[in-house]
Amino acid sequence: MKKRLLLVLLVVIVACGKETPDLIVKGSIKGLKKGTIYLKKEQDTAIVTVDSVIINGAPDFELHSKIESPEVFFLYLDKNSSENDRIAFFADKGITEINTSMKKFVFDAKINGSAQQKVWEEYKLMMSKFNEKNLDLIKENLESQQAGDTSRINKTEKDYDNNLKRRYLYTVNFALNNKNSEVAPYLALTEIYNANIKYLDTINKSLSPEVKASKYGKELQNFVDKIKLEEK
Fold first, then answer.
1. Nearest to residue 206, comparing CAs of 175, 229, 228?
2. What is the pTM assigned to this prediction?
3. From 75's CA, which of 121, 146, 149, 213 has a CA 20 to 30 Å away?
4. CA Rg value for the chain
């Protein structure tokens, strides 16, 4: 009886000694038999690996990382070739599940995780529409140049500039409407970093206290302060 109690106590001690990871990224890659999956993030302007797992047979994986506040991570697939694919996702503490296929690693990705990921997906859906419009205008402009149609060339160039302005304004408004999400400062830093400082400052001042204290909230504050100092 004493030995049994001692064994149970030992198991409890070992279990308590294992820390639960801040972030767990798990899922499955259909069709993957062999390869290495990497979990990476940006650190000091470089992309660094925080965890990895070797796949040899089963397509399921689980990766871990520390995380202080919501931020963007990357899931890389190295299929033992020169090709590297990556899936970007907005992570928070807890579990993020990513299921995809080896053949269309990025395009087939289904991500279920943080609230920030849902907000980011909403933004990217709208951005895809802006990008499609840009491609249509570029194609139309090339056709106009080949036809020597100056009037049409000028129109497509003007439409392209207007589409770009709309994209910027949409991003600003999206960030302001999502001031309680870490996605807001992230978009300001990555999508409209070269916009007029008044827009960046407005987004920065609108952020909730929790978001301002996050990784991207602090980075945006530093970025805005730096620009203001340079403009003096």
1. 175
2. 0.86
3. 213
4. 23
